[in-house]
Amino acid sequence: MTHQHHSDLHTLTAAYALHALDAAERDEFVAHLAHCEDCRREVSGFEATAARLAAAVGETPPEALKSRTLAAVEGVRRLPPRVPSAGPAAGLARTVRRRAVPLALAASLVAAVTFAGLAAWQHQESEDARLQARQAEEQLEAVSGVLAAPDARTVHGRTTNGAVTTVVTSDRQNRAVFTAAGLPVPAAGHTYQLWLDHDGTMRPAGLVHADGTVLLDGDPADATGVGLTVEPAGGSAQPTTQPLMLLALPA
Fold this sequence. Notes:
The chain is α+β, with helices and mostly antiparallel strands. Helix 4 packs parallel to helix 7 and helix 4 packs antiparallel against helix 8.
């Protein structure tokens, strides 16, 4: 494998958290992780987010389903092991895999939520629960679409209270994703609120209650930046406190 440039390693945090790296990439990233506090925090945030999103629509299957599944495994045809090709073809395959990391990330996220959503649909009799499962799936698919977009662009920042933040934007998707790691718990009766900066006009872009990844509300197409403030629970129409972060978006 061709060694990643040091700055490129910072972009592999989400893929590492979802086990989407090959062995060589994982070893190199683990070595980098030992010396990069920002990446450790970001990995922690992605891992927590994936767990929360899957749990939001997941449900423990009944014992009968587990028994039927285990019994059916005996009838599944086993495939022969795949033997990796040697020489230039193997190098090309590694290159393709490396470039496909965002797609692998999106596929992993969608696969996780699809399984959880199916379980919820089968075993939840409440219409409210099914609605929540669909909303969680749609949210996760939207996040995955931005992360896997060919034109996805990433910027990193840090809040004044020490959290590491990342914003990923896609012009094709006309969406933006915000990730935070290390956000202190806000005071009682308060929450974090995101803002899109449109030529100096701050427009609400969603609430953030803890570390994790969220899809920004609103249209980021002509926004020049993303801001974060502490607001009263439920959010505000306009910022009421000094920004903890104002991150410029790529032009």
